[in-house]
Write a structure and sequence with these properties.
- The chain folds into 2 domains: about 5-95, Winged helix-like DNA-binding domain superfamily/Winged helix DNA-binding domain (Arc Repressor Mutant, subunit A); about 105-165, no CATH class.
- A hairpin with a 7-residue loop joins β2 (about 55-60) and β3.
- The chain has about 170 residues and is mainly α.
- It has a 3-stranded antiparallel sheet with strand order 1-3-2.
- The protein has 8 helices and 3 strands; from the N terminus they run αβαββαααααα.
- It has helices spanning about 5-20, 40-50, 80-85, 90-95, 105-115, 120-135, 135-155, 155-165, and strands at about 25, 55-60, 70-75.
- The relative contact order is 0.08.
- The longest helix is centred in the last third of the chain and has 17 residues, at about 135-155.
Length: about 170
């Protein structure tokens, strides 16, 4: 299994085989069909890897005679494994989504602070701040999208800032 796509396909087949037994623990015999596609050693390594990722719970035995032989005595797909099989990512995709809400007043305050820090003269700052304060919520939403687009257009600068922020 040197090819990453092949490895991913085998991981998926292991998950699919275990999914047919959910919520029960699948016995080793349930994975006999997989042994036509991979060795017991590869199956054990795959189950162990999926277990370390929290996608399955498995009973993998590594011989302690120095041979490194491995045997899978059974496994059970977990909720994360079932969600992984779903095209949309299942409930985990929804639960792991981060939603950031900025209220109109917060956006106005942020923009106003940047206007005040700018090199514009006092009259221009005042006019621009008044224009921002008079924008309706939809106008602010469009402004934030445009500002995000402008910020991403300056990605090299943002990347340097992000590296500084994260200590990388």
């Amino acid at each position: 299994m040197t090819d990453a796509n092949n490895e991913r396909a085998l991981q998926r087949r292991v998950l699919e085989a275990l999914d047919t037994f959910y919520p029960a623990f699948a016995p080793a015999s349930a994975m006999d069909g997989l042994l036509a596609e991979m060795s017991m050693q590869e199956l054990a390594a795959t189950v162990q890897h999926l277990q370390e990722l929290g996608l399955v719970t498995g009973k993998v035995h590594i011989a302690n005679d120095g041979s490194g032989r491995a045997t899978v005595f059974g496994a059970k797909i977990e909720a994360r494994g079932r969600d992984y099989l779903k095209a949309d990512g299942g409930l985990a995709a929804e639960l792991d989504t981060v939603v950031v809400r900025l209220h109109a007043d917060t956006i106005r305050a942020l923009l106003d602070a940047y206007i005040e820090q700018s090199d514009l003269d006092a009259s221009a700052k005042r006019k621009l701040s008044e224009a921002v304060r008079s924008l309706p919520a939809k106008g602010l939403e469009e402004a934030v999208v445009a500002l995000a687009r402008e910020g991403l257009a300056r990605w090299p600068d943002a990347l340097q800032w992000l590296q500084t922020l994260t200590g990388q």
